[in-house]
Amino acid sequence: MIPAGSVFAFLAEHRDVLFPEAMFVDMYPSSDGRPSVPPGELACVVVLQVLHSLSDVETVQHVRCDLRWKAACGLGLNDPAFDPSLLAYFRRRLSRSRRPDRIFDAVREVVAATGVLKNKHRRALDSAVLEDAVATQDTVIQLIAAIRRVIREVPGAGTVAAACCRAHDYADPGKPRIAWSDEQARTLLVDALVTDALQLLGHLPEQNLGPAAADAVGILTLVAGQDIEPADDSDGTDGRWRIARRTAYDRMVSTVAPEARHVHKTRSHQQDGFKAHLAVEPETGLITAISLRPAAGPEHHEAAVALDLLEEEHGPRDVLADSAYSTTVLREKLTAAGHRLLIKPAALKKAVTGGFTLDDFHIDSAAGSVTCPAGHTTDLLPPGGKHQQRKAWFTAKQCTICPLKPRCTTAKGGRVFTWRPHHNLQADARRQATDPAWQADYRRWRPPVERTIAWLVAHGNRHLACRGSIKGERWIHHRAAALNLRRLINLGLDHHNGTWTLTPTTP
Membrane-crossing residues (predicted)? Predict the structure, then answer.
């Protein structure tokens, strides 16, 4: 009754080999007895849950009523399954263990045992925005929530709040009772809430704080500063506070999920949440590495995460990626590691639309000179400044009479040429990208990563099923494990005589 070649049929036959009991021994160190539900059974349920994008309650309902799920998990026809809270309990034990991604690692070991990636030397890198599971909070809601959290988590904060905080009754779960359409009332409320926050932070008793209390204080400090600025002195409100007329870089969007951030994939499309970064073998579509990071911040940029995705690769690889990965630091490190780079270089900005770029100038950094497209030569000054840039000025006399000026610059004087230390490396990458063989490889092997991302976010998984980066990291690894397992089964995965093999099926 279960279709052959399905994930259900595979788990029904091979679940004990894929998720053996010894794999979870360290998660249950108590000598009082064994868990009532075997962890291998729960691992199968988690794989099926993330594969079909179900909640805990829906998952248990399927385990209880669906014959396919019962067979996959080794349950009897009349087995009543278990309480949905057991899934949360199991995931929490996984997260706190020494190997929180052991389900993903187990499938990755199967991938290695089959040899499906042998001689597959390409890795395509990309990222996808995943929206957080919480609502974006405005400044007022963030301030109130952060103050409440400090009162709840920090010893002695309740006494301080009772003496200093007057803007709102923080024991009241509702919003402040003001006329929200009245701009002056909103301004006064913001000022009062910021004053409460600063008073609370300034009068907390000196003490050693635990992790929860320290996080609460840190979040309140951040919220009280990221969206707030002193009110303009000219309006007679000296010493007051207002919502800033700008958006703070790396702004926290919710106190419930402090790691979530604003992100723009395009100028017109803004989202709040995280980015999933993944490395894919483009021929098979298998995910070799994956990670969930905040959507903003230099340490979470695509180029910064790329090295982590390739950390466990042995031997040189052809690394394919779009221009988001075209940073000097990443290029230098990947080249030093012996990889071949098929990373699309970032486009050069043109001073004049359709005009010349830096690549149209001849640069002799050793001789310290720059020659423009018209043949004028000027000196390249010694490096200076924080970024060790070198500048060259073409005189107004040279540029004014030059017939190519309309394609070069709109400046009334001469053009200013800026040379950066990484110019030669990026220029070489741009020249390499014009090679027809390079372009053919890029066009053939870079797009398949989009197919894997489509699998990742299908069935509503563009929205995270859980809150926060820790739970999200576990979820995305489980999702990747389930997708890899399904892909292997489609490629003919089987187990014979203790060995994982791929036996392609005849169409």
Answer: none
